[in-house]
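Sync notes, pocket subgroup
Present: LS, DG
LS reminded everyone that the earlier model was apo-only. Rerun requested with S-adenosyl-L-homocysteine included. Inputs:
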Amino acid sequence: MVDRQLRKRGIRDPRVLEAMLAIPREEFVPPEFRVSSYQDEPLQIGHGQTISQPYMIALMAEVLELTGTETVLDVGSGSGYHAAVLGALAARVISIEIIPGLARLAEQNLRRTGRGDNITVVCGDGSQGWPEAAPYAGISVAAAAPDIPPPLLDELADPGRLVIPVGGRLDQELRVAFKSGGVIHERIATFCRFVPLRGEAGWR
Ligand code: SAH
């Protein structure tokens, strides 16, 4: 997976490649899909949600340019896999999930794999961020929004980076927003397809 899906497509950050090698993706995938754990695709995790394609998770982690000192907000815990990757790259991760059953699943998966020590899973509407632990040097959103939710920009540290799929319900662009000196710069990293963000600043 790391050679064929990540290195070949341009993922270069050695810390990201190392994290993706170290974290057992099969432990975050439901038993019936375990044989497909390392396939180049998203997989069903229940409640109509998916664990993202490995390449997308690596790309989203890489653009945050984490060094290991940061507090990161992960919106859309799902299986907890993406949070585990971020946890290996940052000092602390708050992972927020709107579906209680998935918040529990993420928590269990992280605990079972011994990856949960610097990760706090909370249940709530991540389109409003999680002000209690703000500001965040990195914010990663794993569900597609009609636009960047304003509370997330407010909770972003300065300097800080946010990555989020923005667009329609079926296809989106993966946007990277960089806050520096109070100014937000944006670029498009790629095109993508994510499940919709719910909640106040999502698709409701
Ligand atoms: N990162 C996950 C997969 C994300 S799928 C993993 O590694 O497995 C997107 C997730 O976002 C789903 O679990 C969905 O329930 C959640 N979600 C959607 N809207 C949300 C919101 N407003 N706040 C928090 N989580 C949300």
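DG: Residues 45, 49-52, 75-76, 78-79, 81-82, 96-99, 102, 125-127, 142-143, 195, 197-199, 202 surround S-adenosyl-L-homocysteine (CB under 6 Å).
LS: Strands lie at 43-46, 49-51, 71-75, 92-97, 119-123, 136-141, 156-167, 172-180, 183-192.
Action: DG to write up.
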